[in-house]
């Protein structure tokens, strides 16, 4: 995979770094996103610090792993155990190995898999009630062991968009799909501009009051009023799934060349000699 990210924290002078945190690790092929729960601010606690420590600990635990050895839920359990900051957070750990994506997810951060311009998978959202996602923390009611575990088959060319609710609550899936498609046309397989354009689109929508948003629709379903987008920190990580490594493609090329040669020796060349001999033979008898 090739991955990159873009983060736009909500404008808040007291918390310039916002409450989201994320990482991605190319070698281990792991992505993590977390969203510190804002409710802690009432108690004078910046839950962004919890989210940042959680993601730092998760990243540290995988940095020397190979993709096949990563178990997303174990990463989450381990990171939670090591994180001592006060606060709580949603969290999603995604691991790519071979053609398989595995993820462990608590709350309403998550990811979508886009194939050929269409969303083929969207991770499930866990929430206790409207706008109260499952969250892990120092004393929360949710445990990392309760994370939803999912596995998705991937194909070369798939795009994984991992994000906090700042994206998913503001931008409809169709807009994510068209933005990703446009970026692929404009920039090729370059995850940085795609992550940036998705985050900027979410930021724009989050400030609008006149256009609908997924958040507005969910609020209405839950019996709340409110129009437009949701002001929030916005984290977007985009990963393009490509077959990794020149060596891999070279060995595949070599293998197909050998197979073709063997095929030709076994089947084509005797046929050729047979045809040649036959034509010669027949020629003699005309
Ligand atoms: Mn959020």
TrEMBL record:
- Required cofactors, per record? Mn(2+); Mg(2+)
Describe the reaction catalysed, as an equation.
O-phospho-L-threonyl-[protein] + H2O = L-threonyl-[protein] + phosphate; O-phospho-L-seryl-[protein] + H2O = L-seryl-[protein] + phosphate
Which residues are in the PPM-type phosphatase domain?
5-241
GO MF annotation terms: metal ion binding; protein serine/threonine phosphatase activity
Question: What SUPFAM superfamilies does the annotation carry?
Answer: PP2C-like
Class of enzymatic activity (EC top level): hydrolase
A Pfam family this chain is assigned to: SpoIIE
Keyword vocabulary terms for this entry: Hydrolase, Magnesium, Manganese, Metal-binding, Protein phosphatase
EC number(s) of the enzyme?
3.1.3.16
Please report which protein family the annotation says this sequence is part of.
Belongs to the PP2C family.
Full protein name: Protein phosphatase
What organism is recorded for this protein?
Answer: Perilla frutescens var. hirtella (Perilla citriodora)
| Species lineage | Eukaryota, Viridiplantae, Streptophyta, Embryophyta, Tracheophyta
């Amino acid at each position: 995979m090739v991955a990159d990210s873009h983060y736009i924290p909500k404008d808040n002078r007291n918390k310039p770094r916002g409450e989201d945190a994320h990482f991605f690790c190319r070698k281990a092929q792991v992505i993590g996103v977390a969203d510190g729960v804002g409710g802690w601010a009432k108690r004078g606690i910046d839950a962004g610090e919890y989210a940042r420590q959680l993601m730092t600990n998760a990243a540290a635990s995988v940095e020397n792993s190979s993709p096949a050895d990563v178990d997303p839920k174990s990463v989450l359990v381990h990171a939670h155990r090591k994180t001592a900051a006060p606060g709580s957070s949603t969290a999603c750990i995604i691991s790519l190995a071979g053609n398989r994506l595995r993820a462990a997810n608590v709350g309403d951060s998550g990811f979508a898999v886009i194939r050929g311009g269409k969303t083929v998978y969207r991770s499930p959202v866990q929430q206790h009630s409207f706008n109260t996602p499952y969250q892990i923390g120092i004393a929360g009611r949710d445990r990392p062991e309760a994370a939803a575990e999912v596995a998705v088959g991937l194909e070369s060319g798939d795009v994984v968009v991992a994000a906090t609710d700042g994206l998913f609550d503001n931008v409809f899936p169709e807009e994510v799909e068209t933005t990703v498609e446009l970026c692929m046309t404009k920039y090729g397989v370059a995850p940085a501009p795609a992550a940036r354009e998705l985050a900027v689109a979410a930021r724009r929508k989050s400030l609008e009051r006149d256009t609908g948003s997924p958040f507005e629709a969910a609020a209405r379903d839950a019996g709340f009023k409110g129009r437009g987008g949701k002001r929030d920190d916005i984290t977007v990580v985009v990963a393009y799934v490509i077959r990794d490594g020149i060596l891999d493609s070279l060995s595949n090329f070599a293998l197909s060349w050998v197979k073709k040669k063997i095929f030709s020796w076994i089947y084509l060349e005797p046929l050729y000699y047979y045809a040649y001999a036959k034509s010669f033979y027949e020629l003699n008898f005309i």
